Amino acid sequence: MVTARLSPTANLLRKSRVFALPQALAPPQERPTSRQVFESDSATLPHPIRAAIVTPSSSLLKGDWGLKRPLPAKTTSARSSRPVVRLNALDTFEHTTDFESAADHTVTLEKFQELHLPMSLPEKVSYSSNMAPRHSSPFEARLDNTEKSNGLRDPAAKKFRHSGPYLASQTEAEFQAYLDTVRRDKPKIMKKLRSYFLAKKKAERRKQAQDSGDFAGIDEPFVFDAEEFQAYVKSLRTDPFSLGPVIFQILDLPPPPMIPSDLIGKTYYLPPAPQLSAPEYVASGPPKTHPSAGLSYTRSHALVYNHPRFGPQTYQRPVEARVLRPKGRFKNKGGNAVGGVAGIVVEDLNAMAFTEYDGPAGIDQFDVSIPGGAKYWVNPIRASINSHGRIDLASYRATVTSRAPYGITEYQKPRIMKAPRYVAHSGQRQVPRLDRARPQTGTFSASEDLGSPADNPEALARDLMKSFT
């Protein structure tokens, strides 16, 4: 077999790491709001938009990253033992390579993989119940489909992505641009509508044959004329309830949110039954990425956490969570506790309504006396990707049983020791006075010692009279 010869330039481009980098993704868009938004330009993005680049240790000593020019060691190997960079621009106007550290996302990925959690489809978690939500893997054959998958032939098949846009999240300009696209593709859309009309007529003929019992000519091709098709189109235009499912199916649009209750008695375009893989996608829209986002490819929780001394455990080793914001009222609204688990911000971290007496230290209010900040132990139970490409992590507070095999205890604030009280012979408890006069040595005899001078004012008066004489 003769292999094709490549020129030196083509061979260089095939082995170049620069040409192997994928194209950068669009940064996450901000939600449209009329309020003032305070954000940092250097804050970590919810998901990476550029590929992370690593280099072997032998090349790292030379500053060779497979790019156009070597990178300085002062900003790479001198700052970290495992430097990872992402490329913003290969060559700028100043003839430099614009890069930055990619450890914010790579370290988060390593921390998440240490949790050993499979990715699940999004589902609401109720912290008032002790029952963990049911796990649904996004890799199931009936759920892991797109508009081009062969598995959609199954009547029970669902998908996580549609070819059409999510109209509920579009602005007016985006919606008008989509309408212009639909007008340009009108011949293709009418062709799909004819196929839909043909399939509907075949289904009606099959149903009539089953009801009458006469199956003669059921396999013959169905032929319709242009007038019959135009009459069908006019009937759809006059009936929004019938036109809605046809539009959503032909244009392959995701289902909209639930119809408001004030429109039930009015005429509206009825959407078809949702085909999305998770009910949460119906309310918030289809996901921008795969429901797993490539974080984990484990399909179930079927793992055994074997302790070297105590054997198999129900839960794995608890994870220490940091309290980023304690419970309280923020901007005149009741605020839930916000914490960080494996580099992921988790809201409603407390499984139950913890109080000051039974909750972890620092969960109710900010406490500067806790060394290293407020932390406590949790057991992550569920991880999923929402419609905006963010990680939703649910966790329960680690119980005493899950912490016992590893010798983990919650932080307890030291108790304040109370000062001892002086007890007089009368049996009454008195708080010691700090501004009282010190008794002189030898002023009281053993018979006259009835307690402290403050407890026996008569003895104090006799002592003063003796000192004056």
UniProtKB/TrEMBL annotation:
<feature type="region of interest" description="Disordered">
    <location>
        <begin position="425"/>
        <end position="458"/>
    </location>
</feature>
<dbReference type="GO" id="GO:0003735">
    <property type="term" value="F:structural constituent of ribosome"/>
</dbReference>
<dbReference type="GO" id="GO:0070124">
    <property type="term" value="P:mitochondrial translational initiation"/>
</dbReference>
<dbReference type="Pfam" id="PF11709">
    <property type="entry name" value="Mit_ribos_Mrp51"/>
</dbReference>
<protein>
    <recommendedName>
        <fullName>Mitochondrial ribosomal protein MRP51</fullName>
    </recommendedName>
</protein>
<dbReference type="GO" id="GO:0005763">
    <property type="term" value="C:mitochondrial small ribosomal subunit"/>
</dbReference>
<dbReference type="InterPro" id="IPR016712">
    <property type="entry name" value="Rbsml_bS1m-like"/>
</dbReference>
